[in-house]
Amino acid sequence: MHDVLGIDVGGSGIKGAMVDLEAGDFAGERLRIPTPKRSTPAACADVIGRIIDAFADQLDADTPVGVTVPAPVVRGVVPWMANLDKGWTDLDAAGFMAKRLKRPTVLINDADAAALAEIQYGAAKGQMGTVIVLTFGTGVGTAIFHNGVLVPNCELGHIELDGVDAESRVSAGAREREELSYEKWAVRLDRYLGFVERLFWPDLFVIGGGISKNHKQFLPLLHLRTPIVPAQLRNRAGIVGAAWAAANADA
Ligand code: BGC
Hints:
This protein is an alpha/beta fold. 30% of the residues lie in helices and 25% in strands. The chain is built from 7 helices and 15 strands. The structure holds beta-D-glucopyranose (BGC).
């Protein structure tokens, strides 16, 4: 099995690495380029193109490149975009990228990608029942699995709670913006996850995103019925999951 390039498009950085799909981990160095200030599809495609160029000599011609976007991706179309330029809205992003990058690409929601990596290789490996994976970064990404099968494009970060978009209060971005201590942020997280718990009665929550490396500072402060564990692949999950999705896409 060849290594596959995974690229994770986020609110602050666009990151790529070759992924060893047997190990479920990076096969080499990660390259990170800041997300362009005007994060239009064209500007992001330019950065994605630079990352592909950097790994060009390692790419297998027959395997697509996996690219995540921080938005739902419905049959290649991004119907709505929360945290990047609004020029993405209703774009056939898969078609757009294939044309600009002149290479087969598979586009996938970033949380779905991260969750696939956790199910294949990480904290939720082999877990039956209902698993909800949440990523906390600029936004709040969510993915639901039942018996290992993903329900794509769940957007539970945008549940309305206390009259506001939950993401605006519980993302890692909100914690930084409002300079909240982990104790204060955990109160919000507890309320949010408690709400999600009462809607889905999951068997497991997995908490991902960069913030998950500090899980000891907030997971013990939560009062949930559902077992909750930190992601194992942390901020590598998006890239690993993108590569996995590309390698496993229907031809
Ligand atoms: C988007 C999701 C995405 C999440 C994490 C949310 O604002 O709507 O699609 O998964 O941010 O980037």
